[in-house]
Amino acid sequence: MKVSWNVCAVVILALFFFSTTSTYAQDHQQRERWQQISNQIHDAQVKINAGVRDSSLTKNEAERLRNELKKIESDMKRAGRDGISRQEMERLEKEFAKLRKDIYREENNRERGQKR
Question: What DSSP character marks residue 84?
């Protein structure tokens, strides 16, 4: 009987350890993804400003891109208040991927008057 209690205790401790480790790993991964998006926001701001300076972006294009960026920042702040779910993180990553494409498209739009 004593052996079975010891086995149960070891199993319970092992389950607790693995669930705690798994939760920590998921939290760490979410924090890393959050930090990546934060860094990308900064990079996008720099890229938009540089595009205005080197005339690869018009002021109107830059303003539209900045508004798109502000929306992503606002979504991040709102999501971060109560903890961010995997679905919210994926949505933010998709929004940011769209912004990167929009920046690239606008910067490489050789005909300044042409809108896509």
Answer: -
